Amino acid sequence: MEALASAPSPLIALVGNPNCGKTALFNILTGSRQKVANYAGVTVERKEGSLLTPSGLRVRILDLPGAYSLDPLTPDEQVTADVLLGRRAGETQPDFVVCVTDATNLRQNLRLVLSLKRLGLPMLVALNMSDIARRKGILIDSARLSQELGVPVVETVGVKAKGVRALVAQLDALGAPARERPLAVWRTPSAAELEHDQAEVRRILGLTGGDRLDGVTLSDRVDAVVLHPVAGPLILAVVLFLVFQAVFAWAQAPMDAIKFGVTAFGNWLGAALPASLLKDLLINGVLAGVGSVLVFLPQIIILFFFILMLEDSGYLPRAAFLLDRVMGSVGLSGRAFIPLLSSFACAIPGIMATRTIQNPRDRLATIMIAPLMTCSARLPVYALIIGAFIPQQTLWAGLQLQGVVLFVLYVLGVVGAMGVAFVLKRKGPGAGYQSLMLELPAYHWPNARGLAIGLWQRVEIFMSRVGTIILALMVILWALSSFPAPPPGAMGPPIQYSIAGHIGSWLAVLFAPIGFNWQISIALVPGLAAREVAVGALGTVYALSATGADVSGALTPLIAHSWSLPTALSLLAWYVFAPQCLSTLATVRRETNSWRYPIIMAAYLFGLAYVGSWITYHAALALLS
Amino acid sequence: MPGILDQGLVGLALLVSMGYAVIRLGPKSVRRHLSSALGRLAAFAPPAWGLGRAAERLAMGAAGKGGGGCSGCESCGSEQPAAQQTPEIRIPVAHISRRARG
User: Fold this and answer.
1) Which residue in A48, A352, A360 is closest to B94 by CB distance?
2) A348, B91: Cβ pair inside 8 Å?
3) Which residue of B76, B85, B95 to mutate against A (max A Cβ within 10 Å)?
4) Distance CA A306, CA A301 (A)
5) What is the pLDDT of residues A472-497, one digit of tens each?
6) How far apart are the CA of B58 and the nearest CA of chain A, in angstroms?
7) What is the ipTM of this complex?
8) Other Cβ atoms closer than 10 A to A401
């Protein structure tokens, strides 16, 4: 066994059509927790993991983006083709290919199997989702299929680990890879070859029983309502509206509990520690800053609960279909919907997901507008200001005003994005509408385990950000806000005489026309690292601006007292459009291979945010005067 | 609390925070130099301090990037270990969607 473990590891590639369950299988084989969802285009980059087989063979496994053929049309398909053909820099060609197929849709999947066979790499076929196929009455004779294809066939159920043992046994038999092997070469098939493949697929399906065409399925019946031209958009609007209602309605009790915990801990710390710099750092720096962000964890969990449910159920591609007309009116295709929706979690995966967009202008326009979708890091900022300025009032049929305002802010981001896309797509060559073609997966109930893992990952990510970069920035901000000490006889709060106070007063000159005071101006700077840091920064700055009282965990009443409503609305408008965090700009640079686009993006977002805030501030002043 | 201890602890917290912020947010070259220097420092620490793993992670950080499949906002739920990071994809926008030949 030791000899096997030290032998060179075979490299195995999981290849298949989009949304056939490659990543679910990869997660089970390697113990990874890569993102899985019920729509095409979730995986846009190669992922690697390893597996130790029962005989002690270490196998490297690659999860590749879904592809319909080895002639790539989109950047994600390009990744798959490059890896399989050994064209990727610094990577050898895989020693073995596991072609994952969707057993419920073999007619389409077998075309890729035949292409891969032509490539000449050793291969096996994983007949995935075989349980769903059986439930649908599609009984595939896998032994016959294996015989016809001339490769081993294993039945699997990716989400349930079923059949994985048989797959691992096949991988176990591989042994160490051959040292020298000629590179597999791909030649784009001619029309005659494609026709031959199609005929071959029909022949094999006829022999193996995989050619059963479904009648009207449950998914079709649901789609008749959900995709209805009138009912469909209404249902979509109601679903999204309810999500934002729930974010406020359900989160109140756990938020209050966290607030209570933070305040109680602050009081205990205040009583336990003697007066010292360290005490000031812990209470006014760490606790005031980090505690202010921590209270928004329940809202983030609720938002992601709904996003994950929608992803897993198969509703998202339907939403893309419904919004194709709206997207088309600004020159984008419905295919941009899923990257844009991913951007509600974070702009970075959204921007990476644009690799599934075929048209380069569409892709670039989607990248440029993705930051206008309200990422989850903006939620704490919105929730703080809404909590402070919008009364907890029930409007009608249990609708909460705060939830309505949050919904409007999300809509404003979308409207802004559509406006920018309209301008981008109308300018320059290549403008025009691209028709949408996408696969609609069958609906299924979200997997409870997958949902729990997804939510746990969000908690981990949020807590790790709070405990690392937010904590570090709060410590730095506390130091900048505490030193130098005020001169003897100074009357104002010490922070006014500190480095941060001076920076804030300089920035306030720039931001005064849009109603921002020096405290807000300071908070905007660390907010460039991550949006929610702005909330922590406000917590620290206001804690240090206060004279004597312990304010940890009480930022909401403080800002409600010290800001005017126009200032609060102006800050909300700022965060609808505000320039993106540095990580997003770096991702745009990488995805476009140019500094030009991140610079343009930062400049236009700053301009848009400034103009939006100015209009909001002055309109609110005029209305309230 | 003695003044020297108080100031020492605060100074240390500030130093660590600044180092971390530079590693996470600073320019790539500065990030790599700092990670590599800290990694070497951690590698020299006595084994009892348990800094072996931190040294490894810093060395990996110096060689490439940590975090997810991006610049590290970690918001995408990607869990790819740094050692298995994919080389950056460099596909100029204008070349996307051209069908591969041959």
Assistant:
1) A360
2) no
3) B76
4) 9
5) 988 998 998 888 988 888 777 778 88
6) 15
7) 0.71
8) 15
